[in-house]
C-alpha cells in the first residue's frame, strides 16, 4: 500500500491572518465567540438555494420541498460522484465527520472558519454525525439557520481544507443508535442555533450537537474547556479585549471544541480515526479499499494508507 503523508498547513492562513490583524482582530473574534464555527456565509451549499426560499434550506421543510419538486435537487459532478461512492463504501451509522470550512464574516473579508480553528489549535472547524437513510449516508449537523440533514457528497462541498472521519470503537458502538435518535429529534424540532456558546441544552452549536448526541446515549466524548484556556487564546490580545466588552460570551465560560490530540472531541479515546486528508477534491482511497492512519489513531502524523 502506498502511504500518503501530509503535514498541518498553517501557511495557507498566514497572509490572511496578517491582513486581518491589521484591519481588526476584534471583529473577527466577536464573530468567533458569537457563532462558534458554524456560520454558513461562504458555504457553497448555501449559494445553491433559490433566493425565494425562506428558512433552513436543509431542514425538514426543505427536504419535503425537494421531494415534491418545489426545491431543485443539487446537480452532481465528478468529485461528488467520487465522494458518494466512497461514502457508500466506507461510512457507517454514527461516524463523526470533521471538516475545515470557509465560513466568512464582514462581507467575506474574514476567514472565520480558519480563525476559529486556529484559536483552538485544530485542523477543523465543523463536525457532523453520519446516518444511513434511504440507502445513502447523510450528515446531521447545525449552523445559524438550524439543524440540517445533507447527503454526504453535498456536505463535502463545503470542505475548504482538511476532512476527516472518526468512528466510535467496538466498545462504544452500542451508543450509536441513541446518538442518531437525538440527531433526528433535534432535526425534526429544529432546535435553535446557540450563538452564545452556552452549555444549556435548549440550543446547540455544531460541535455541541455532536457531543450532546452521544452524551444523550451515555457516551461522553470530551469535556468543555474554558474559552480563555484555549491553546492559542493568548495570541489574540486585541480580540480578547473586544470580546470582553462587546460579546455576550464571557472568556471564563466553558464550551465544547473540536480541539486536537490533547483537548476536545478530536482527542476522545472512544473514537478511532477512519480517514483523514488535507483536501476534499477527491477521496484518497478508491471505493472498497480500507483507509486508515499509518500510526496510532491518536497520533498527529497525518498519514493515510491506501
Describe the protein's architecture and organization.
The protein contains 8 helices and 10 strands. It is an alpha+beta fold. A 6-stranded antiparallel sheet has the order 5-4-3-2-6-9, with helices on both faces. A two-stranded antiparallel sheet has the order 1-10. Strands 7-8 form a two-stranded antiparallel ribbon. A hairpin with a 2-residue loop joins strand 4 and strand 5. Mean pLDDT is 80; it is low at 1-37 and 287-306.
Write the layout of secondary structure elements.
Elements: E1 3-5, H1 14-35, H2 60-67, H3 78-90, E2 96-99, H4 112-119, E3 126-133, E4 136-143, E5 146-151, H5 152-156, E6 163-168, H6 176-189, H7 206-217, E7 225-226, H8 237-246, E8 254-255, E9 271-277, E10 303-305
Helix pairs in contact: 1-4, 1-8, 6-7
Helix content: 25-40%
- Name the structural class: alpha+beta
Question: Element order, helices and strands?
Answer: EHHHEHEEEHEHHEHEEE
CATH topology: endopeptidase fold (from Nostoc punctiforme)
Shape: globular
Strand order of the largest sheet: 5-4-3-2-6-9
Average of per-residue pLDDT values: 80
Distance between the termini: 6 Å
Hey, roughly how much beta strand do the residues contain?
Answer: 15-25%
Radius of gyration: 18 Å
Domain module count: 1
Query: Low-confidence spans: pLDDT under 50, at least 5 residues?
Result: 1-37, 287-306
Q: How many helices?
A: 8
* Annotation, overall tally of beta strands: 10
Tell me which CATH architecture applies here: Alpha-Beta Complex
CATH class: Alpha Beta
- Outline the biggest β-sheet: 6 strands, antiparallel
